[in-house]
Amino acid sequence: MLAVFSVPEAERNKRHVLRSRLAGLGFGSAAPGVWIAPAHHHEETRHTLERLQLAPYVDLFRGEHLGFAPTAEAVARWWDLASLAKQHEAFLDRHEPVLRAWQARASTPPDEAYRDHLLALDSWRRLPYADPGLPPHLLPDDWPGARSAEVFRALDERLGEAGRGFVSGAGVG
Prior knowledge:
Blueprint: E1 2-5, H1 12-24, E2 28-31, E3 34-36, H2 42-51, E4 58-61, H3 71-78, H4 81-103, H5 110-124, H6 127-130, H7 145-169
Antiparallel strand pairs: 1-3, 1-4, 2-3
Helix pairs in contact: 4-7, 5-7
Pfam families: PaaX_C (PF08223), PaaX_M (PF20803)
Protein name: PaaX family transcriptional regulator
Domain Transcriptional repressor PaaX-like central Cas2-like: 2-75
């Protein structure tokens, strides 16, 4: 999906908000005023732009990259893949050992589950917005995104219910 926008100079503050929102939605910058994201971002993008009253400045398109550089090379220009990889690696460095420790345990004490689940949620919550979810064939072979998603899912499956039980039992929430 392409987002092509033009904001009058007199409303430059809206231009800044628009760029920030598109980046937060997982868009990469293909050129000034031209941002790109996988098509699955369409509904959330439309909703966000309408809610922020930025839709009048933007046109959205669906399309495919037709050249001239290979698409994987172009993707590497449009997104800061090194920065995204570092974010995934930081998540893995912090939470993969936690997952292994939980996998070695037979019991799931609710207070500990709550603590570790909350920490994982807090670390994870920005990643789905920063990472646009590009197809694997457009990413480096050693891309850590799929592994970090697997670690998060496994932690959520193991700890989520027990953590929610701890909160419910404590009279919180």
